[in-house]
Write a structure and sequence with these properties.
Strand content of chain B: 15-25%
Number of helices of chain B: 13
Shape of chain A: globular
Distance between the termini of chain A: 73 Å
Strand content of chain A: 5-15%
Radius of gyration of chain B: 39 Å
Shape of chain B: flat
Order of helices and strands of chain A: HEHHEEHHHHHHHHHHHHHHHEEHHEEHEE
Strand order of the largest sheet of chain A: 6-7-8-9
Oligomer: heterodimer
Helix content of chain B: 40-55%
Structural class of chain B: alpha/beta
Order of helices and strands of chain B: EHHEHEEEHHEHHEEHEEHHEHEHEH
Chain lengths: ~500, ~425
């Protein structure tokens, strides 16, 4: 810095010029730290537009559905009553990365949002392996435009009710409509359009062929043969299975199933990296703004407002507080990234014992590596340090409905660190948090019924909502559907069954 | 790295309107029911307000597969202040804040989902019930009369609106302003010329040059147009909605024992619709409530709809009271008077004929419109008498109502009249 720094604009009123200056300065410091970001674009919106964005998953374009209207109404009601503030920011994982700034925010808030979203989240989106593998930032908006137009077109052609029913059913299965392990091919608008017809025709013929093999009398002997299952291996992605195999769906219906599935898949990484991602963005807005303050670019007043809202964000109420609502991902994430930096910069003996590889090394490289290659589950398992467990005073409780009392299994002491860390990591394992359901079989020689199996783990049952979801599933499949649970010993139990109901239309 | 900053505040507002209308469509049945309840609850004058609607949580949930309560689960909590490994604690009561209780799986409570229906949406559904034709709905839903009022001047317009005074004033100002430099220069040169003429003899080259220069400047000054296109000013007029003054609506209802709650509710819809119609057309609308059995009294709205009476029916008392109120408080030169009578048609036999003549001679000449609705399946004696009035008058309508859809035809005549 050759020239004497001139302080950045102050006060709470913002204007475009001030935003631009803040953005430039924050960008400069971020570059000095080696943050690798997509280009970004700051969009100034009103509170109402923010609520719009809320309701349709934050995306600038989205297809229409009543449930988004419902979310909008709920948000609006809470906001109007003052029960909640709106999030200060929404950031979209696209290239260029779009960050929304709400017009009501003060200049300080806008600066936080720029640092948090346009640099923090942005760099995470660009580099984290899950986002790199699962989402393609450059094509998502195009794909959503395609999706919206396609669905609008279907509504025109087949009626609102029909499309709505289909979307309802798909939404019900959205969280079991993702590939947890397989990497999906990249989305591309051009390819998508071009292949859509081809695919539709092909799949339709394929499916029809499958179902043409009606059981014949003379093949009774064949039925005696060892029963072969329809699937060689169970399929975890229910929506994918429906899209490819549901016998009665029309091509346009398959396409809509596919759209919902793709969108669900797109948001899957966000759900897997909440702690890391929010923590990362919070860590960087904290670091970047503090750097600017050290350069005397920010006033004390700015810092006070900033620190006040920052500490609100990372507040973690204790388990017995009235405000406790689980572990705050911002708090845990921020603390972990800070702790990681501390381990690099000021390692203690304990850190050297626990993290021999990274204690004392250059923190930028360590943080960058961690950001690129982990998700919440593995991040916690790898980097949660004993010091942090002590600081947060974590403890683990076992709740077994066969026992009359809850048991405290581990606390923040030498004998508990590993178990605590393992349990917390498991807590962020989506495969564990969400029920494990798989397509088990289709009775393709009999009544064409579909069987879904729920793998019981720790005897945790399915919530009552399964009844309603099964209705939706039956509607998509068009024939009987069955839901069975299977426990660790292989005992199978029928949970729920939907008999085939005659539909007016094949 | 330069960021683009885009101001989207003025972009399409209401982006989620499409989602909202889908939401309303889906829950039409529930919303309809809520509107019907609201109509029963509301007072007539509150009919066009927002309304909060509640929808049962079970209808509106979006189910997903999720874990239920039970089984064995481990959870990590922050803020340990008393526990050591191996401690056992009592399970906290169901639903208590803090550990042990897990939120409902979809993050939504079991309370009703409630939201506010805007005035327009409320009326839309209200009208739907009454089977109003679209055209009428449109007319009701907005103020339809406008008056043009002056609103300054504009630079564009049609020739008839040309404001000559303004245009000329502007032109004069422009001429003075533009000619200013020339005039000053000419005056200066003329003074110089006068001096020169005193000092020198003609012919003189300098004097000639000076004269030529003055001539040139004069030509330039005179070339300034007297009236330029941009001097033109047009009177600007804007449309201002103009409800046409004041009206009073006199509601007469039979509250004898035979009018049950159901019939009163139908009558209420009828009065509400009339009220909306009147508020759309008049600046202020007064409502007078007269209820009667064997005696007529003026009451407030609450009592009008909710108190129960028994006994016989003498309709003419109400008509007399109406006439008296009009005479005392609403002299018809200042007020547009609308009468609306709802009854089950049951009248004391000897009273119906006097009613007809009283209505025909004393009341109809005073009012813009008088509507009689009979909430009954078969024509009653009052109906038979009133029917005789139809031919001689154009401001009287009567209608027998069995269901809500029957209300509208009463208004048809009203609208036709206004459109004419």
């Amino acid at each position: 810095m050759s020239e004497p720094p001139s302080p950045l604009p102050q006060g709470s009123e913002w204007n475009e010029e001030a935003l631009r200056r803040y953005d430039e300065e924050i960008g400069r410091v971020a570059e000095a730290h080696g943050l690798d970001c997509y280009r970004h674009q700051l969009e100034i919106i009103t509170a109402e537009q923010m609520m719009d964005a809320y309701a349709s998953t934050g995306m600038p374009v989205f297809y229409h559905h009543w449930s988004f209207g419902k979310h909008f109404l709920a948000t609006e009601r809470n906001y109007r009553r003052g029960q909640m503030g709106l999030a200060y920011e929404i950031v979209i994982n696209s290239d260029p990365c779009i960050a929304y700034l709400m017009e009501e925010n003060t200049l300080t808030m806008q600066a936080i949002v720029i640092a948090h979203a346009a640099y923090g989240h942005n760099s995470f989106f660009k580099s984290n392996y899950l986002f790199r593998a699962w989402t393609s930032a450059d094509t998502i908006v195009d794909y959503l435009v395609f999706a919206r137009n396609y669905i609008a077109d279907c509504e025109e052609r087949h009626g609102h009710d029909e499309v709505e029913r289909l979307l309802d059913a798909c939404h019900a299965l959205m969280n079991v409509g993702v590939n947890r392990y397989k990497r999906p091919p990249r989305l591309s608008l051009a390819k998508e359009k071009e292949r859509q017809r081809e695919r539709a025709e092909y799949i339709q013929s394929h499916v029809n062929d499958l179902w043409r093999t009606l059981p014949r009398r003379e093949s009774a002997a064949a039925d005696e043969a060892p029963k072969k299952r329809f699937l060689d291996e169970p399929e975890e992605n229910l929506l994918y299975f429906i899209e490819k195999n549901a016998p009665l769906l029309e091509p346009w219906q398959r396409e809509i199933v596919r759209i919902v599935r793709k969108v669900g898949q797109y948001f899957y990484p966000q759900r897997q990296t909440q702690v890391m991602n929010e923590g990362w963005a919070t860590f960087w807005h904290y670091t970047l703004l503090n750097d600017l303050y050290d350069e005397h670019l920010l006033s004390d007043g700015f810092m006070l407002e900033f620190l006040q809202s920052h500490s609100n964000v990372i507040h973690q109420p204790a388990y017995n507080s009235n405000w406790f609502g689980g572990i705050n991902p911002y708090a845990l994430g921020f603390a972990m990234w800070r702790d990681l930096r501390r381990i690099c910069e000021e390692p203690t003996e304990e850190d050297r014992a626990w993290f021999p590889d990274i204690a004392g090394s250059e923190w930028h490289a360590v943080l960058d590596f961690a950001m690129r290659n982990f998700k919440d589950e593995s991040f916690v398992a790898q980097y949660l340090s004993p010091k942090l467990m002590r600081d947060m005073r974590l403890f683990c409780v076992e709740d077994d409905d066969l026992e009359p009392m809850l048991a405290v299994n581990a606390i923040h002491d030498d004998s508990g660190y590993r178990e605590l860390r393992e349990t917390l990591a498991e807590q962020y394992n989506l495969g564990n948090r969400e029920p494990d359901l798989q397509v088990w079989d289709v009775d393709f020689r009999g009544d064409r019924s579909l069987t879904i199996r729920y793998a019981l783990r720790d005897r945790r049952p399915l919530a009552a909502s399964m009844e309603a979801v099964m209705d939706h599933l039956a509607c998509l499949w068009g024939f009987s559907v069955r839901l069975e649970s299977v426990d660790a010993d292989g005992n199978v139990e029928l949970l729920c069954e939907r008999q085939h109901e005659k539909r007016q239309r094949a | 790295m330069t960021a683009r900053i885009i101001d989207r505040r003025f972009d399409s507002k209401n982006k989620s309107a499409a989602n909202r209308s889908r939401f309303l469509r889906r829950f039409r049945a529930q919303i309809r029911q809520a509107v019907a309840d609201a109509v029963a609850r509301r007072s007539i004058k509150e009919i066009d307000k927002d309304e909060r609607i509640g929808i049962p949580a079970k209808d509106i949930s979006e189910p997903q597969f999720a874990h239920g309560q039970g089984g064995r689960r481990m959870r990590v909590f922050p803020g340990n202040d008393r526990f050591a490994r191996g401690d056992h604690v009592q399970r906290p009561p169901e639903g208590a804040a803090g550990k042990g209780s897990s939120a409902s799986p979809d993050g939504e409570g079991t309370d009703d989902f409630s939201f506010t229906l805007s005035k327009d949406e409320f009326l839309d559904i209200f009208f739907d019930d009454l089977a109003l034709p679209d055209l009428v709905k449109k007319q009701l839903a907005r103020v339809q009369e406008y008056q043009r009022v002056r609103a300054g001047y504009t630079q564009t317009g049609v020739p008839t609106n040309l404001s000559i005074l303004r245009s000329m004033r502007g032109a004069a100002g422009r001429r003075i302003a533009v000619a200013g430099p020339y005039t000053a220069r000419i005056a200066e040169l003329e003074a110089k010329l006068a001096r020169m003429l005193d000092e020198r003899d003609e012919p003189d080259n300098d004097i000639d040059a000076l004269r030529k220069e003055i001539m040139r400047l004069r030509l330039r000054r005179d070339a300034i147009p007297f009236l330029d296109t941009f001097d033109l000013r047009y009177s600007n007029r804007v449309l201002v909605p103009q409800p046409s003054t004041q009206a009073v609506m006199v509601c007469i209802m039979d509250v004898s024992g035979s009018m049950d709650e159901q019939k009163k509710l139908i009558a209420k819809r009828f009065f509400m619709l009339l009220y909306i119609f009147l508020t759309r057309n008049y600046e202020s609308v007064d409502v007078v409530f007269i209820r009667h059995h064997t005696q007529a009294v003026e009451v407030d709205e609450d009592e009008f709809f909710h108190s129960r009476e028994t006994g016989g029916t003498v309709v003419s008392t109400a008509l007399h009271l109406m006439q008296q109120i009009i005479r005392e408080r609403y002299s018809s030169s200042l007020w547009n008077i609308y009468g609306a009578q709802a009854s089950d048609g049951d009248n004391w036999d000897n009273d119906s004929a006097p009613c007809r003549s009283y209505l025909g001679e004393k009341i109809l000449p005073l009012v813009q419109y008088f509507a009689y609705v009979e909430i009954a399946d078969e024509p009653q004696n009052l109906w038979q008498e009133y029917e005789k009035l139809i031919d001689g008058t154009d401001n009287f309508a009567l209608q027998r109502i069995r269901t809500l859809e029957d209300i509208y035809p009463v208004f048809r005549a009203l609208f036709q009249k206004r459109q004419a």
